[in-house]
Amino acid sequence: MSPSFDAISKIVPPREAWRLKVRVIRAWIVPSFGNPDSPNSMELILVDENSNKIQATIRKQLINRFKDNIIEGNCYKMCYFSVVPNHGSYRATKHEFKLTFLFRTIVTTLPDDIIPRVCFTLYPFEEILQMSQDHDYLVDVIGLLTLVGEEKSYDKDGKTIKMVVVELSSQKMVLRCALFGEYVDQLNHFLSSGYVEQPVVILQLAKVKLFRGQPGLQNVMKATKIYLNPDLAAVVDFRKSVVEQGINGTQPLFIANEGKTISLEDDFMRLTKKSTIDELQENKEDGTFVILGTITDVVEEGCWWYSTCVCGKTVHPESGVYFCDMCMHHVTNVIPRYRLKVVVSDETGQGIFVLFDRETTYLVKKTCADLFNEVLCGDDYPIIFRNLEGKKVLLKVDTKSLGVDRYFGTFRVKRICDDAAIISMFELAQTEITPLKDAPVPVFGPELGETSNTKCLENTVMSSFLQKEANVAGLDDIHLDMEGVKEVDIQDHSVDSDENVVLSDDIGSLIRSDVDETQDLLSHLLDDSRKVNVPNVVPKDAVFLKVKRNLEADFDKELEDTVAHCSKIIKIEDS
Questions:
Q1: Quick check: 337 and 364 in contact, CB under 8 A?
Q2: How far apart are CA 100 and CA 82, in angstroms?
Q3: What φ, ψ does residue 380 adopt, rounded to 5°?
Q4: Where would one find coiled-coil regions in this protein (predicted)?
């Protein structure tokens, strides 16, 4: 510390003539009790070049004097304060004292300095889980966001407040955190960007609360700050530690209120309208459909990957650097993700379908980052993509064509399935309902994507399958047993409401049966002595959470102050 400035660690009363060179790493307005539109105080967290922190308070009478001259993230020279004990149950720093601005306090802006831009005091999950009472200090935590609960609303003082419970995991332990109001909106904004993997989250200045002896986290209105996949060294270090623990950090994020519990079988056999490629291309309305086809070619045009910021937003190099529009700053850590075009054929025609990161990873069983490190040149198409040719797949596609693509009839794949049992059931359903007509398969010519004018399939729309609604697990009793799971992707939340065609009793029995019974019935119906082998597409080295979660219990009664069943230690078993 320069001799002309005092160190934060040395601040004690009764002296007031302190001279500090600090960065404001957090600033917020505390509203008056009972009148949220009227400010009560302005709170600051100051850090010096030694990474020592202290809280400072600007009382109501002086807010207008200072608020326009103090901006979060900037460096300042500050002089003259009253030093008071750091008491209360919402202490933002561990410093024994805190500062109170005076009328004669001087604040002068300084150019950017070596003072750290962020300074977290990260609490280990184990320490929080061992707390037996409400903690008086606000905490900073970092973890993988593994689950987003169902969003709820409740009334308080005539206003409706949103609430959602999320789960963070670290060191094979899990903490639950209740988010309210604007923090729910911030989370929803991030999720709407399309990021599907488990992001790294930093919660700054969160409150530890106990409910029935179980510790959990809760945001403090205005004070807490949420970082979702920030471009920070702490995030890079955390991701490395996750890999070292043997945890699969690229698992899909579970979003309970978006129907992510819908299985592949439910989605492709019951809940989504069926179509053919020819019908897709003639369709005039936007919607979601399932088609069965065979990958016949990989379109080797353009790049098979693209770069994203750690927040999930696509970034492009500009003058040798990347800029993220979501994070609003230049980024140094970028992640490659798949964007692969494949030609798929069925009995009615051909089309081009775009597979993005989740779907391509599902097929090739390898992340884009891993494959990128194996190839000599990222512009060359890896040989592994050729292994996809001849593969029969079910595709859940969006009929809204990709307008920026040069080819007619190009559609985005929202979910993919290569499960042999489900494909066999799909084919059997098509055979019993809609016999196929013989028709030549058109060949791509100068107008790539042009299809035949002859429709070879009738609509195979399933309505009210055996007069029974699809059975989808809800948040009240979510059981994740990933050891036996057949899929690693995230189910898209859109569920078509189209009615289903009534199938035969054999198909009904088939759908309701377990895997073994399904295989036996398939063998009998198809007159095939072979049993259908269900491939295990879960990577051998993946480590998953195994836990029965009930996020709704007791929250309706304690929404404002508590987190019901807030945390638990979860053993992550090796797969």
A1: no
A2: 5
A3: -80, 145
A4: none
